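Changelog-adjacent note: as of this version, every example in the card shows the full chain rather than a window. The one below runs 295 residues end to end.
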Amino acid sequence: MTETKNNNGLKVLTGLLGLVLLAVIIYTFSLYQEKKKNEAILTEEKALVVEDLNSLKSEYDKAILESNATNEELVTARDNIAKYLDSVKTMRADISSLSKYRRQVSVLKAEREQLLKQVDSLKTSNAMIAMQRDSTYTELEKQTVFNDSLVVQNTQLADVVEKGSALGITTFNVDAVKERNSGKLVSTSRARSTDKFKICFTVAGNVIAQAGDREFFLEVLDPQGNIMGESYSKTNDNGASVTYSKATNFYYENQKLDVCDYINKPAGDFQKGNYMVNIYDDGLKLLGNVQFALK
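Full-length structure tokens:
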């Protein structure tokens, strides 16, 4: 009877142990399933964080490419996101780490919105500046064209004034003369009788010419083409030069003026042949010439 009781007790204990083992197996399997489920959720959460970071990085890359000039703040933000991506990809997923990165993603999104607003504002400002610059260039070009036109007009006007203010002559005569004992001068055509050449010209009136002392230059050429007189030389501002016999000075008052001057006999008598007399103004412009002959 005692043996029967022992057998029954053993069976009960074996049954209890079996129940405990079964409960442990069920609990262990449940923990394993929960672990797998949690790992799947963490992996999915990690993938979402990586996706968000990649999206942010792509938006920064696009914004940097669209910027006309490199924006250091955009580049720095893009580089920081790249560092976060590397960290998330290599980390061991856990709830604490993922929570931290999800919060960081939210901060980065807010920062992105702020930076992109600044970029848009800068684009708008740059566009306005470009429009103002183009408008300024256009106005400057117009002003340059206008100024060039004024320079041309002023130059043309100065030329007109210079030409208009230049003195001219209306008459130009040369006489070979003999001086009598009484001092009277008589015209002659004979070389041996000639004592001097009387050169007379009339300066035309000019209201825009400058009044005051003026000077013309007389060039007298003998039959051999030699300069008669002292043979002076004059060069103008353009580099042109003239060798002349005598300078004739007179005071001009913008009205018609008759002027006469003389070329005296050389060391010997005047030669027979053809003579030429040229007259130049103070700018060495040829105003007229006369040819005559002595017998």
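Structural remarks: The chain is about 55% helix and 25% strand.
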